[in-house]
Design a protein that fits this description.
367 residues; alpha+beta
Length: 367
């Protein structure tokens, strides 16, 4: 038995470099199969993403279908898009930091107490890190309070830049209400602002910069999951049916190729914007196909496609449906019979259950 024991599990956000490092294949081809039905290299059906056919060996790890864990690929996006799962965090950080220098907008009460904004950040950081070790819940509450107060600051205490209200129009559109009118912030603008936020300023807002830098929440490289979690199935007719995730990934690759072509050919800005919006839509519905305010992604014949969130959540999802709850032999459940002739200390069960699934238990003084 191993001496090692898991003490805790910590979640983070993958950086573009980490995604590139863990991927075995770069996805380039928008087609899945050649004319003979063989999966194409550098497509989302590339055999190097994992073996799903019996008798074959994986080109990456050399294992058969039973032992091969599957391998990730990556798609380099023509332009960045916002991860719909982190929209709230992106909105909070944008509102709590300076649009010009990226520093945390220290509330005036702390500046008055400690003399200048730099000293205030140092002191808040010292208190926060000490509190985080002993009282993590209190530290979290402090970080949330600091963020709320910083959102109200109208002028940066570090560079003096005037701050504007940033509005989120769900699911992924950000607008800055400046004196010149409403300016739409593109994912490129947002990513550049988030890159300027120092690690220490992020920590006092409750984020771990080593595990989750905010600019990583704007996707530039999309990880492509292994074939083992989205295998094809062969129908009775002999036709091949692909998983919902594969359908969505194919839409993403096509939309990305369309955007890349528009940028390379110098297409008008409105065409580039439309292609960019389409890529954002497909990536949003790939993660969560039931995102409010977004049309449901469907197959050609009208069936809604399930995203990653739908695969995990709910009673039929992976956690409750497959991990928490398992069907086992020799067990059953039934409605207890409502019989007025039963005594108060008796329970009625169906005859079949009583005959097959009950075990004799001798009554002794000990039980």
């Amino acid at each position: 038995m191993s001496d090692y024991m898991i003490e805790k599990i910590k979640f983070g956000v993958l950086s573009p470099d980490e995604i590139r490092k863990m991927s075995s294949v770069q996805i380039i081809s928008k087609d899945l199969f050649d004319d003979d039905g063989v999966p194409l290299k550098n497509s989302i059906m590339d055999p190097r993403l994992g073996v799903i056919e019996p008798g074959q060996r994986c080109e990456i790890c050399g294992n058969t279908m039973r032992e091969c864990p599957g391998h990730f690929g990556r798609l380099e996006l023509a332009r960045p898009v916002i991860h719909v799962g982190f929209v709230r965090h992106v909105h909070e950080i944008l509102r709590a930091t300076c649009r010009n220098c990226g520093r945390f907008k220290v509330p005036s009460s702390y500046i008055e107490r400690y003399g200048d904004p730099e000293k205030a950040v140092e002191e808040i950081y010292r208190i926060y890190t000490k509190m985080k070790k002993r009282w993590p819940l209190l530290a979290k509450r402090l970080a949330n309070t600091l963020k709320k107060e910083a959102m109200k600051v109208s002028q940066c205490p570090f560079c003096g830049a005037k701050q504007y209200k940033i509005r989120l129009e769900k699911p992924t559109s950000f607008f800055e209400e400046s004196e010149e009118g409403n300016l739409k912030l593109t994912p490129i603008d947002i990513r550049q602002r988030l890159e300027r936020v120092p690690d220490k300023d992020l920590e006092i807002m409750g984020y771990d910069p080593k595990e989750a830098r905010p600019e990583w929440m704007i996707i530039t490289v999309l990880p492509i999951p292994p074939l083992t979690i989205r295998p094809s199935i062969i129908l009775e007719t002999g036709a091949r049916a692909e998983d919902d995730l594969t359908h969505k990934l194919a839409d993403i690759v096509r939309a990305n190729e369309k955007l890349k072509e528009a940028l390379e050919t110098g297409a008008p800005n409105i065409i580039v914007e439309d292609a960019w919006e389409l890529l954002q839509y497909h990536i949003t519905t790939y993660f969560d196909s039931e995102t409010p305010g977004v049309p449901v992604a469907k197959q050609r014949y009208g069936r809604p496609l399930k995203g990653l969130v739908q695969r995990l959540k709910g009673k039929e999802g992976r956690f409750r449906g497959n991990l928490s709850g398992k069907r086992v032999d020799f067990s059953s459940r039934t409605v207890i019979s409502p019989d007025p002739y039963l005594s108060i200390n008796e329970v009625g069960v169906p005859v079949d259950v009583a005959k097959i699934l009950t075990v004799p238990e001798k009554v002794t003084p000990w039980n």
